[in-house]
Amino acid sequence: MKEDRFIPISNADRIEVIDVLRGLAVGGILIGNMQWFSGYGFAPALMAEQSPLYDQVTHFIVHFLIEGKFYSIFSLLFGFGFALQIARAEERGDLKAGIFKRRLFWLLVIGLLHAFLFWAGDILTIYALMGFVLLLFRKASNERLLKWVTVLIAIPIIWYLLVYILFRAFFPVEALAQFQTAQMDFWNTAVRQASQGTYTEIVSGFNLNYIIGRYLGLIFDMRLPKILAMFLIGVYAYRKGIFQNLAGHAQFVRRVMMWGLSIGLVGNFVFAAVAGKEAVMPPTAAGIVGVILYSFSVPALALGIAALVATVWPTSFGQQVLKVFSPVGRMALTNYLIQTIICVFIFYGYGFGLFGIIGAGTATLIAFTILGFQILISYLWLKYFRYGPIEWLWRQLTYRQRLKFRL
Q: Where are the domains of the chain?
């Protein structure tokens, strides 16, 4: 079948609650990322404990309610979108997922440019690479998908327990003090490089080191199995038609909301209080508790929040409140990249150089300001254009067609 018959989904066919969730997820990801854009997330534990109380409280709330939850929702939506695109492609004769593979390739290119030229905290490269892994599950049954979700969620727990045992068996007691010293040295170097460096110095120095450390951290923390698990939940949600027919699945969605919020709120509160990080290093007994809670309560709260939105959305009040996030979600990729451009200019040396200077409280206020700006700009943009600018470019590269831009 000719590729010119494969076209992007039209606005009339969009599922608006998905755009709303995607917009909320982009906002939540910004709030979580702001801890790292500002440098506060890098601060050694001893320094964080000496910061003002409002910074400590804000950081705790972000850990408790935000960090990990909204990228999990975004991962779920990625899996949902994957299943939707694969189904539409197969209906049109693309049985080898060629369009989706090309879509992933160009997402990977955009992500690599984003990571190496602007910010190492990029998530796009990870989504693109894990998207190729997701292709292996496109023929799996629903039962098999859920079994894999369970296995993938358990992998980080088993891995951390193994690391804890090995650390206790082979590392000397003084390793903790050495690790804390290394943390402080890294912090001082990072603040100097990020807040004072030129663009070239930051890209070739701080940012490059950050990329290496980040990807090693993703592997060590076993973040990748967690992302894939949420992808598979999104595929399952599409196949069951949950978001396509909220009225018909209202009872199921309410159950997910109640259980997700109950388990998620309690589990994440304890996680933030006991561990505070996804995988504490050096590994500790509290870290084991944290990894277990993170593995189960973060997906639970993410599902609870998504189900809450899906429950409220069909009501007139829900649409009045939540509809503002729909344009942000329709331009999610553009907004994600704009967030980076704004934040690196605020915090890095080639801008205002505030890295390591302001705390979690002020950084979070900046995040809300940026989100408010993006809500307004996205609404105004989509009054005149069909897509966000990066979405338009991405679609043209994917479908190899000239697509109309203006309405």
A: 3-399
